[in-house]
Amino acid sequence: MELGILLEAGRRHPDDLMELALEADRRGVGVAVVRRSARHEDAGEPWSPWTIAAWIAARTERLRVGIVPAAAPGAAFGASTPAFAVTELRSVTTKAEQSLESLAPGRVLSSATAWVVAPPRPDAAGLRALAVRGIPILPVENAADLDRAVALAEQLRDVPSPPAPRSAESLAARVPGIDYDAVPASLAPTAVEPGDDAYASVSSTYLRGGAPGLVLRPQTVAEVVDAVAFAREHTGVALGIRSAGHGISGRSTNRGGLIIDVGGLDAIQIIDRRTRRVRLGPGATWQRVAQTLSPHGWALGSGDYGGVGVGGLATAGGIGLLSRKHGLTIDRLRAVELVLADGTPVRATETENSDLFWAVRGAGANFGIATAFEFEASEVGEVGWAQLSLVTDDLEASLRRFGQIAADAPRDTTVFLVTGRPREADQFVISLYGVVDDPDPDVVVDRLMPFTELGMLVRQHVVMTPYAGVMGNAAEVGPEGQHGFGEPVSRSAFLPSLTGEFARDAAELLRSGLVYFFELRTMGGAIADVSPHETAFSHRSPAFQVAAMSSSDDRLSARWRELGHHFDGLYLSFETDRSPERLDEAFPPPVLDRLRSLKRRYDPTNLFRDNFNIAPAAEDAPSVAADVASGSAA
Ligand SMILES: Cc1cc2nc3c(=O)[nH]c(=O)nc-3n(C[C@H](O)[C@H](O)[C@H](O)COP(=O)(O)OP(=O)(O)OC[C@H]3O[C@@H](n4cnc5c(N)ncnc54)[C@H](O)[C@@H]3O)c2cc1C
């Protein structure tokens, strides 16, 4: 059981307090809490508890350090938690706590931690009783007090700590509608709720700011089962499923709801060298996957950004820089394991739960929580990796020409185009980035030359590298988590071919300044080799996938509707509009009908509904599953 000492700033010279803290640290006391002495509160004492705590944190090795920022009037010995520190601004104390944290990582007790000041001359039994309310801390003014504290700490060392209580402030931050006390024991140690230290690091995702009511972080399949059971008891709040938090829809965070974050299931395993079979946890990022496969001369085509997670991408599609040669990411999937809405863990392959296997590859978010994926990696050696920047004052012509060159290129060449608002007058910067999957530099140069005609080439970076060098573009998410804020706004569509009319309309949209990010992902090649019936991702024939991001949802929607006649379907991974019509565009009618029938079978209560929800078909709806599976309903 943990025991601490209370050091009163103002009662003794800071040097004396430091001596006591160093001695406590040396003799194995766990915690020191510093607060301003009530007696010296108004005496103009220059050493604030923060300053003293910072010194102690910097000079001790193991001592965890807490601060009572400003004592409330009348607060003396007796039960207290830092929650009474209402006189200082929360944002200021949070910043100060963060600074201390960088000085002594993992040793700063934030205001979410409860402690309780022990009465004078406590005994071990009294301290044990006190511990259910917080970490008992003993006032220490001199060496004799410290000796007593150390003796008690030694007596209590092997007594198990009662479950850590939460501070009053932390309890007040809880969200109505979530039964926090019912969090399964398996998940409680890793769960994060609003008052917790780790909360800021799990609230937001890459693109969206969030404030969830509870983040469950299962580390095993059994814990995912427990998390799903908890979610079934909380259908009144939003439920987000998160792998690596790079979803563009942003639904892997929310405000006031529940998140099941399977990012901790991030193992990458090679299970059969002969067949290049690899097993990936949903929380692995594509950057790590590429690094692991690279020494074997293998790769798995993914999206274009290494920070994206396996879970979100491999349940949606995966249009990437190897796609024209090796297909979508889901085309290399051989098995997936999921926890269904009723808590059953299942495996789905071509032969086992094959209808589920079909559904997951394109509409996975609706059917369960994927806990593992097995892929057949491709043999990929060194590739040409190109990043080119060009300036054009005739965007329409550049887009038109890009459409021809990119779509007609041999399938070893996959090039994406990004542009945005005009820089000045009518000048646009076009960024092209792409992979030529051929180890011969001459072939790479040959393939890329036509693209350099799309404008004035102002920057070029072309290297031969393993695919891991292409995916090594992502910043690691650090302990502070992701920092998305606000709501992302993105529209998505498939473009059957890049016509002159589309180039004209797209150039006009970009000239309006409404869109700050516009991307054309080249499809075709191996993507189109796969029958539209093979996976729920059935838009196999478009030449491009197009995405546009803006800060104005309404205005972008209006302009996107005007472009609608150019499009045929949409890819959900780049869409943020969750109107039901978007589902009709993502899935052709027979596909959507089949998905609805399967949803009725696998998630009849619609537990997994918070990301492009496919509502379960009504009980008496005719099943079209067989027709679609055989291809006759297309
Ligand atoms: C910078 C950037 C570049 C991108 N480039 C590409 C690209 O080139 N090609 C491409 O195809 N996509 C691309 N994407 C889109 C990306 O693939 C999707 O947004 C994907 O869903 C992100 O996966 P995640 O696990 O990181 O995200 P999360 O935010 O964790 O998850 C996104 C959604 O996926 C679902 N989900 C997540 N984990 C699971 C799970 N274990 N089981 C079931 N459902 C789950 C949930 O509905 C969740 O809301 C890009 C995204 C970003 C941010």
Describe the structure.
The protein is 30% helix and 20% strand. The chain has 21 helices and 23 strands. The relative contact order is 0.09. Mean pLDDT is 90; it is low at 71-87 and 625-634. The structure holds flavin-adenine dinucleotide. Residues 205-206, 240-249, 251-252, 262, 282, 303-305, 308-309, 311-313, 315-320, 364-365, 369-370, 573, 611 line the site of flavin-adenine dinucleotide (FAD).
Instruction: Specify the helix fraction band.
Output: 25-40%
**Mean pLDDT reading:** 90
| Order of neighbouring strands in the sheet with most strands | 20-17-19-18-22-23-21
Shape: elongated
Number-wise, the strands total: 23
Major pleated sheet = 7 strands, antiparallel
- Small molecules (ligands, ions, cofactors) in the structure: flavin-adenine dinucleotide
Instruction: Indicate the multimeric state.
Output: single chain
Note the total helix count: 21
Q: Assign the structural class, choosing from mainly alpha, mainly beta, alpha/beta, alpha+beta, or little secondary structure.
A: alpha/beta
List unreliable stretches of 5+ residues: 71-87, 625-634
Q: Report Rg.
A: 29 Å
Task: State the separation between the terminal residues, measured CA to CA.
Answer: 66 Å
Task: Quickly list its features.
disordered C terminus, seven-stranded antiparallel beta sheet, alpha/beta, six-stranded parallel beta sheet, 634 residues, single chain, binds flavin-adenine dinucleotide, elongated
